Automatic annotation (TrEMBL):
InterPro entries: Metal_Hydrolase, TatD-like, UCP005295. It comes from Cellulomonas denverensis. This is Hydrolase TatD. Gene3D superfamilies: Metal-dependent hydrolases (3.20.20.140). The lineage of its organism: Bacteria, Bacillati, Actinomycetota, Actinomycetes, Micrococcales. Belongs to the metallo-dependent hydrolases superfamily. One of its GO terms (molecular function) is metal ion binding.
Length: 289
């Protein structure tokens, strides 16, 4: 089984997670920019965070055989904080960086006028940069939020095949499918989807433009949920080719040519990473006696 997890916040995870991901077949991840759990207080904290996504985290993943990519954007929760709005002037320069594969995650949290403005502004950035958009649907009133999301996307002029609408469930998948956008599902304990429900949706709607991710972050989450979904698909009678399509070929098709998928040079599974450094830091802490 080969896996590209298209929504995984590895900045919040450990090196043990990288080793477990590689052992499960994950060879590439996409890490969307999101909030830290507490408010940022200046644009400088965003700059440092974005630099880490395209720098240190990309290096750290490679030490464990995994290709790391990022999406860059102002998340909807922080779109309501005036201290964060200045970052909109900074984002475009990151969209040209190697390893940046989309604008995101964008969208709605509380569906405020401020979120409307920030969402529309960043969809325009995606259009200008010729990048796809990764869109977050709200946790509250998800159906209304998804409808509003699709309306704003249409107004922005992005073609539906360039938009991945994420965190969907049984009540919203039909809307996104009818709109022609990509449908994303986060398999996340307790608060989002689970593997069995995901398999039922795949049976009903098919595999075309369906994206599965773990959305693992600093909360109670599991970065192996993509692998667990693949195993549940096989147990339910889907073929290995079906699993490969959902967990690899679909996200590769959506994110497109900006992905880097060649094996990491020199990486050997099961071996301690070589003492490589990124700006003076290594994933190896200290020196063996």
């Amino acid at each position: 089984m080969r896996i590209l997890d298209p929504h995984l916040h590895m900045t919040s995870r450990t090196t043990d997670d990288y080793e477990a991901l590689y052992a499960a077949g994950v060879r590439a991840v996409v890490e969307p920019a999101f909030w830290l759990g507490q408010p940022r207080t200046s644009v400088g904290s965003f700059v440092d965070y974005f630099d880490a996504l395209i720098g240190w985290e990309r290096f750290r993943a490679a030490q464990f055989g995994i290709r790391h990519h990022a999406t860059i954007g102002l998340n909807p929760k922080e779109a309501n904080d005036p201290r964060c709005r200045e970052v909109l002037e900074v984002i475009p320069r990151y969209l040209t960086k190697e390893g940046v594969v989309a604008v995101g995650e964008l969208g709605y949290d509380a569906m405020t006028p401020e979120e409307d403005e920030v969402f529309a502004a960043q969809l325009a950035m995606a259009l200008d940069a010729d990048l796809p958009a990764l869109v977050h649907t709200p946790h509250r009133d998800k159906l209304a939020g998804t409808r509003r999301t699709l309306d704003v996307v249409r107004e922005a002029g992005l073609t539906p095949d360039r938009v991945l609408v994420d965190h969907l469930n049984e009540t919203t998948v039909g809307l996104v499918r009818e709109a022609g956008a990509w449908a994303g599902f986060s398999i996340y304990p307790d608060t989002k989807m689970d593997e069995v429900r995901m398999v039922a949706i795949l049976r009903e709607y098919g595999l075309d433009r369906m994206i599965v991710n773990s959305a693992a972050d600093w909360g109670r989450s599991d970065p192996l949920k993509t692998w667990r979904t693949g195993m549940t698909m096989l147990e339910a009678g889907f073929t290995e080719d079906d699993v490969d399509r959902v967990l690899w070929r679909n996200p590769v098709e959506f994110f497109g040519a900006n992905l880097i998928l060649e094996p990491v040079p020199g990486f050997v599974a099961g071996q301690v990473p070589a003492p490589a450094e990124f700006e003076g830091s290594s994933v190896l802490r200290g020196v063996r006696a």
